Amino acid sequence: MTSRASRSGNGNPDAVGFEQHDHAACVRDGMAAAEARCAEEGLRFTSVRRKTLEILLQEHSALGAYEVLDRLREAGFGSQPPVAYRALEFLVSNGFVHKIEKLNAFIACTNPGTAHYPAFMICRSCDSVAETQSMPARGALGDAARAAGFLIERTVVEAEGLCPTCADKADT
Fold first, then answer.
1. Among the CATH numbers 1.10.10.10, 1.20.1250.20, 2.60.120.10, 3.60.10.10, which is that of 17-171?
2. Which H or E element spans position 107?
3. What is the CA radius of gyration of the chain?
4. Helix axes 81-93, 47-59, angle to 10 degrees
5. What are phi and psi of 16, to 5 degrees?
6. What per-residue confidence (pLDDT) applies to 19?
7. pLDDT digits over 1-44, tens only?
8. Residue 154 has pLDDT above 60, yes or no
9. 66-77 in b/e burial notation, b at 16+ Cβ within 10 A?
10. CA-to-CA distance for 39 and 16, rounded, in angstroms?
11. What counts of helices (H) and strands (E) characterise the chain?
12. Beta-bridge partners for 119
């Protein structure tokens, strides 16, 4: 796949699309944000947690826990599933990584350290994933929650379709 998730040029500064970008800077900035937040909050950013995040930042696509485990093993870390699951649990619980429910896989967060409600666009052809922001407190869901006296704390929004690269291939 030649396209990667990046800041979109579509006029929405919070949207993340499927376009080319400075991938090295993306990985570097993501790691720096995680390191800074861990230092600031006294979180243990162990070598296996660091490597797991780096693996996910390098991909810009969702990876299953066993794919992460295989890459950790190749990098010299343990080969038992708890190695990957514990690292992923830490990264998800601290907002560095999101779980993509449809794929039962994980992807690095594009806005680590900021409170947000992500929504994911998942390509049904190549499984690439892009993150954007949703506003669950607004619109029909927010209206229904308010009417029921319900306070939304977490949502999972996943849309399936075709990324631009796969849509172009489908048109030809």
1. 1.10.10.10
2. strand 105-108
3. 17
4. 80
5. -125, 125
6. 65
7. 223 333 333 333 344 556 666 677 788 988 999 999 999 999 99
8. yes
9. ebbbebbeeeeb
10. 27
11. 6, 7
12. 132, 157
- Maximal C-alpha separation, the chain: 53
Q: Please name the residue that has the structure tokens 């490597």.
A: 51
Structure tokens belonging to residue 62: 């969702």
- Among residues 109, 116, 108, the alpha carbon closest in space to that of 155 is found at 116
Contact yes or no for 92/103 (Cβ under 8 A): no
Distance in angstroms (rounded) separating the CA atoms of residues 119 and 4: 17
Amino acid at 151: L
Give the pairing of strands 118-123 and 157-161: parallel
Q: If you search the block for the tokens 């066993």, which residue do you land on?
A: 66
Q: Six-digit token pair at 141? A: 């869901």
Domain ranges of the chain: 17-171
DSSP calls for 51-67: HHHHHHHHH-B-B-HHH
